[in-house]
């Protein structure tokens, strides 16, 4: 109940900020009297937030499908031998900064959201895959033995026993990746993607601190809302809460 209340309050604060920013010109004029245009007006903050959230959701969803799928495969007897090279490959991918990935993908697929999606998905794979592997490894062996004892097939055991018990740990990994991606997605505006990073980039290039603040505040609140939403989801999926 407490987490749900915190989530609702954070979501309301984000909504209030988005509604208030277009009407906050007098406030920013007062804070930054030296600026001729202290309020970012090139794009609507609501539109930028939706575009920002879409990039994060699509890249995170793709990473979750690939990461959880890879964890399921390497946790089966047929894939055990592939786990060490997979973890090495993911660690190498994680070592590349998102800016470097953006710089490499732009010449191949052009400007816009596509290079941002590729960079963020690649950057999310390691925490999601590690969380999925840890979650599957945390399933008690006696739960598996009980499932075998009542005649469950390997697929039934996976869907009815292993994944439900591993879900809170997996969700924690997805949560970490999504929160990181919300901040990192702001960099995508450097390659033409429409995100909440646009006011920040324009503000930095034009020495306009007001624009930077106006872009950073929604990013921070969005990260808080998503973090709390995944915390609530992890609690709901916990066997102690559902049982």
From TrEMBL:
Key words, A-Z: Membrane, Transmembrane, Transmembrane helix, Transport
One Pfam entry name: BPD_transp_1
Lineage: superkingdom: Bacteria
Main location: membrane
Domain ABC transmembrane type-1: 49-230
Recorded topology in the membrane: Multi-pass membrane protein
Alphabetical list of PROSITE patterns matching this protein: ABC_TM1
SUPFAM superfamilies: MetI-like
Subcellular location: Cell membrane
Transmembrane segments: 48-73, 99-126, 165-188, 200-226
Family: Belongs to the binding-protein-dependent transport system permease family.
Protein name: ABC transporter permease
Species of origin: Chromobacterium indicum
